[in-house]
Amino acid sequence: MYACCIYAVCMPAAPSTVKPSDETVTKATAKAVVKRPPAAERVYTHIKEAVLDRRYEGGTLLTEGDLAEAVGVSRTPVREALLRLEVEGLIKLYPKKGALVLAVSAQEIADVVETRLLVEEFAARKAVPASPRLIARLEELLEEQRLLAEAGDLAEVSVKDRCFHAEIVRNAGNEILSRLYDQLRDRQLRMGVAVMEAHPGRIAANITEHGELLEAIRAGDAEGAAQVVRRHVSRVKVLVRGEDR
Questions:
Q1: Is 153 exposed, middle or buried (0-12, 13-18, 19+ CB in 10 A)?
Q2: Contact between 117 and 133 (Cβ < 8 Å)
Q3: What does residue 12 show for φ and ψ, rounded to 5 degrees?
Q4: In contact, 101 and 56? CB cutoff 8 Å
Q5: pLDDT for 113-160, tens place per residue?
Q6: Judging by beta carbons within 10 Å of its beta carbon (0-12, 13-18, 19+), is residue 78 exposed, middle or buried?
Q7: Nearest to 89 by CA among 212, 11, 183, 154
Q8: Of the candidates 117, 131, 150, the residue with the CA atom closest to the CA atom of residue 234
Q9: H-only helix segments in the chain
Q10: 200: cis peptide before it, omega within 30°?
């Protein structure tokens, strides 16, 4: 994959001697215009991304006015976005004051880790024997995580970390478990960034443990893969406790 991206040579197109018609130019211009998402959706995306990558940390008080100015919208779509985020458990609304970004609690950490262990140990065992497609995809995700770690992009490292595990879960072939695991996505990403910021050395350790999990799956060692998952995921509970407020 990377060889294609890195070494492919993009040759400039030969100059055209045919002048495009006005109609052609108009159609091309129309296609180039990208429709902007609704205002409430833009506000929702802005806040959620900032909360997940911890630009808005737990305990931060957000005001409608500041958010409206940051995104360039009126206060009405801001209110709509905040209500949606409160339902998702990322913020707490306080009338006439604003919205408080909720910190990761000890109970949330325990709940997420417990659910991940139940789902991921089962999925790791089901991954054996692994298909060539699964092995290739895990190798690709592991390499992407290494490259992002070298670039220092913690948010994207966390995304790839989560994708690595999610790929194994999807491979288990249980749609109900896959949907349950997907519901943990935001919480996992937020915790992942928190751990990497507080424990920079954990980034390399995560990559090493992902490599061990991949090798166990590749070797057809179902029990060994489950044991790697248990060690790997259980450490999250200990490391994130420093974020408890």
A1: middle
A2: no
A3: -65, 140
A4: yes
A5: 899 999 999 999 999 999 999 999 999 999 999 999 999 998 899 899
A6: buried
A7: 183
A8: 117
A9: 2-7, 22-32, 39-52, 64-71, 75-87, 106-126, 132-151, 154-171, 175-182, 185-198, 202-218, 222-240
A10: no
**Tokens (6 digits) for 233:** 């995921």
- Hey, what's the torsion of the CAs at 126, 131, 133, 136, to 10 degrees? 90
Place of tokens 């790697």: 228
CA 69-154-124 angle, 5° bins: 125
Rounded-to-integer distance, Cα 245 and Cα 241, Å = 9
The SS3 assignment for 169 reads helix
In 3D space, the residue among 168, 141, 171 whose CA is nearest the CA of residue 157 turns out to be 141
pTM of this structure? 0.70
Return the CA Rg of the chain: 22
- Tell me the backbone φ, ψ of residue 94, rounded to 5 degrees: -125, 110
